[in-house]
Amino acid sequence: KKENAEIVGMSALLTTTMIYMKTVIEKIKSENLPVKIMIGGAPVSKAFAIKSVRMLMVKMLLTLLELQESL
Predict the structure, then answer these.
(1) pTM surpassing 0.85?
(2) Is the pLDDT of residue 30 over 70?
């Protein structure tokens, strides 16, 4: 936010740090920051990346449904 970044890149060297990528992604999306997100690192698989995106999309959909119900 402070740097007006266009891309945020995260790399995990251990599986124990991979789980925090989801936290960072959720924070970026909750603040509606217009950035592309790139994740990688030795333990990060394509399946993990897809799962992270899917979980975020489900959370966003649930938020939209809650907003719709409140209207």
Answers:
(1) no
(2) yes
